[in-house]
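The following block was generated as part of the benchmark described in Methods. Ligand: nicotinamide-adenine-dinucleotide.
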Amino acid sequence: MNILVTGGLGFIGSHTTIELIKNNHTVIIADNLINSKIEVLDKLSTLAGIQPTFYQIDVTDEAKLEEVFVNHKIDGVIHFAGLKAVGESVSKPLEYYYNNLVSTMILSKICVKYGVSKFVFSSSATVYGDQPSPLKEDMELKKTTNPYGETKAMSERILTDTSIANPNFAVSLLRYFNPVGAHESGFIGEDPNGIPNNLMPFVTKVAKGQLEKLSVFGNDYDTIDGTGVRDYIHVVDLAKGHVKAIENLKEGVNIYNLGTGKGTSVLELVNAFMKVNDIDVPFDIVGRRPGDIATCFADASKAEKELGWKAELGIDEMVRDAWKFEQNNR
Ligand code: NAD
Ligand code: UFG
């Protein structure tokens, strides 16, 4: 298939591009580089052996985006492009609503116009709100706690309604849990701008000596050791899930959790990082971070049953590959 990957130079999009090429698909990337670097394109060429066609465009620019569909016969779209920092979304709600919703609306409008029948969307476990884990796809969604989460819930509704009105437009809503790790080459990985918000990139920067200490946000949750529990998933497993999702897309709207089904606490993750990589990560326990929940992990059985996809890599591979990338990354 000819697959348009929006946000294809970002963390998850770049790993997915490699897996798509490995599975003989042709990838066309559209990215405005707001949170990625052009060097990733050369790295992708080295790793995949083929240079994907690249358009440096903003997906909210309808005229420029339409040119891509005029130039290529697109069979499917994987829509990663979006802003994703939860804290920033609270201080810049309009940027988040504009970028994440307008991009989804314009892309789906053009897909319908050009008869593109396969659309895969990057959603998030955040749409479940605070509910008991394991989280299942058929649970009722609860109010999310920030504008970023709202853009994911609203995008899911926009795509669902578009698919109902246009039965040829099949949609897969992929709810990611906590993607971490990097390509095993250590060549591409997660490279956020500024001080990381997420746990794993913060840990790698502390290990490297670029940040002094990790703050563990709370040890008084009702969890195994009092620290927050999440379902960490290796980004390469997540990338493979996208290939399965677009290749096996059924009519209508399909929702899948992409997680491992296992919860890991902050301290368990940090300890695994120190042990596997034989390096110290100094940390302090501090107060809870506003908006955090105690526990979030997936029931991942639907994706296994319907897509034949299951996460294969464990915490040890996640912390090993995240560290390998950090050491290579300047
Ligand atoms: P990322 O920031 O690394 O990648 C997003 C890419 O999209 C970047 O390359 C950025 O330059 C590009 N982009 C943003 N807005 C654009 C626009 N208007 N036009 C063109 N390009 C644009 O993020 P990621 O971690 O790879 O996440 C990919 C998607 O998955 C996002 O939609 C994110 O919300 C979602 N998601 C991520 C996580 C996570 O923890 N990483 C969890 C759940 C969902
Ligand atoms: N944490 C710390 N210290 C840090 C950073 C995080 O203790 O410096 C803790 C958090 O309190 C939480 C856990 O580590 O218990 C994971 O936090 P992250 O910020 O890495 O991830 P979140 O689960 O808060 O959110 C992430 C993405 C969201 C996405 C969600 C889906 O940031 O975009 O996963 O589950 F929606």
